[in-house]
Specification:
Layout lengths: L1 H53 L13 H5 L7 E9 L2 E7 L7 E7 L5 E7 H52 L13 H49 L5 H28 L7 E4 H18 L4 E6 L3 E4 L2 H18 L4 E8 L4 E7 L27 H11 L3 E6 L4 E7 L13 E2 L7
Parallel strand pairs: 5-12, 6-8
Antiparallel strand pairs: 1-2, 1-4, 3-4, 5-7, 8-9, 9-11, 10-11
Helix pairs in contact: 1-3, 3-4, 4-5, 6-7, 7-8
Length: 439
Amino acid sequence: MRRRILNTMIAMIVAVGLLLGIPLSVIAWWWVSDNAHQNLDSRLKLISDQLIRQEGTEGSVAPGGLDVEAFQLLLPEGGRLTVRYPVGGGVEAVTIVGEPIEGATMKDAIGLGNAGSILLEIPMDQVRNDQLAAIGIVALVVASSIAAGTIVAAVTAGRIADPLIDLAQRAAAMAKGDFRSEWKSYGISELDRVSRALGDANSEIALRLEREGEIVGDVSHQLRSRLTAIQLRLDELSMHDDPAVVAESEAALQQVERLSRELDEMVAASRNDPASPNDIDVEEMVRTLIGDFRTSFSAAGRSISATFTGGTTAVSARPGRLREALSVLVDNALQHGAGTCRIAVDDLPTADMVRITVADEGQGVDDALVGMIFRRGFSAGRGNGVGLSLARALVEADGGRLELTSRRPAVFSIVTPSSHGPDPDVSPPTLTRDRVPHR
């Protein structure tokens, strides 16, 4: 930005310098020439007066009686004077004062009627030197002005660009969650207004995030309390005499434990706690997901299946994100689709990615709704319009992408980073094998 501002200001200064310098150079050129002509004219007048004084009563100068020394005092440097005057009897004498001039000359003449005429010449080189000197002075003034303007432009560009760069850096820090920046004034009213507005936004966002953090903490505390109470009740049921009750209570305990882990991950994500990436066995996760959803699909007279091709290991700092996103897609296929729900897992070795597709045999997505299905709050049927937008956000948080790759029938694809091609010097991370909580 500083360079653009500086280049723009320098270009304007150079343009103004040229617009003023060229006319001034032309004016200086003609001014020197005109001044030389005026100087010749004034000298000719003095010489003519001197010539008239040397005329006798008869109005003529006697032959050889012209006082040349008086004229030499009036000649300019390097000048040459030619005097024509009558000497009586209709005869005209010519007297030349000064050395011959080589090359072009600037001349000026004056006629004295019956008294003769006078021609004064000077070398054109003298005039050209004076003209070039005048143009040089103009060029020096213009160059000095451009240099001074460049210095002013550099200072001005720095004064404008530095605060803008500082504001951009502070805004970038705020976007990354750093709200400790001090928003200062720069002495420029417009930038100060922007700084104050960003400072107010910084304070408001920090306050809201603090409130949201408090709410998340309170909600997590309340949920943990309720989950603990449920776990205690299920522990009592696990000691029941009926084996079926014991089996169901143990399954419910596992779901409570997994829900508690999911809650821990969400709380850690809300606090932006760092987490090291782990490998996830996608095949194990999908098979567990199918087991949890098979009863619901069977109740609806439908089926769910999966196929696996190539490597099926994904990388995620928080495994619950991928599980939750995939659960959303399968649940949407159950609620809005028809026929068999097919999950396909394959790898993209050239991109070090794993692709998971979820398809069904339903009517698909209307063309008018394609651009809105991932918007938060939009729902084409039953539901609150949060599932797909949440699923995309969870996948993108791990560096992946969730897209609708086919409209009819509907096919959703998740592409997430894979652990293919690991560095042999680095030990592989621990595989996470976990069940997916039933929705």
